[in-house]
Amino acid sequence: MIKYEELLKLSQDSEKLTGRQAGRQAGRQAGRQAGRQAGRQAGRQAGRQAGRQAGRQAGRQAGRQAGRQTDRQTDRQTDRQTDRP
């Protein structure tokens, strides 16, 4: 027959094991949570960066377009003035 002390020791050992498992589980959970958070943060950052880049690009494009338009109008006016006797 197993002595009381041996049973107590076995019981304590199994508690340590479940504590270890709970620790692992909590660690995994915290890791997942941190991973999700970092992923969201990186996504937001990338979104902002892409938005800024697209805004700059659109601004440059609009500036070039407006510049060309102005140049054409100036050329037409110059041509009209030159054509007059």
What do you see in this structure?
- The relative contact order is 0.04.
- The chain starts with a helix and ends with a helix.
- It has a domain of 31 residues.
- It contains one helix and no strands.
- The protein has 85 residues and is mainly alpha-helical.
- It is rod-shaped, with a radius of gyration of 37 Å.
Largest beta-sheet details:
none
- For the record, give the distance between the C-alpha atoms at the N and C termini, rounded to a whole number: 128 Å
Mean pLDDT: 87
Kindly report the oligomeric state of this protein. single chain
Q: Could you give the count of β-strands?
A: 0
Unreliable stretches (pLDDT < 50, length at least 5) are none
Instruction: Please bin the fraction of helical residues.
Output: over 70%
Class of secondary structure makeup:
mainly alpha
**Morphology:** rod-shaped
| SSE succession | H
Proportion of residues in extended strands:
under 5%
Figure out the total of helices: 1
What is the C-alpha radius of gyration, as a whole number of Å? 37 Å
Topology:
Blueprint: H1 4-83
List its traits:
85 residues, mainly alpha, 94% helix, rod-shaped
Give a short synopsis of this structure.
This protein has 85 residues and is mostly helical. The protein has one helix and no strands.
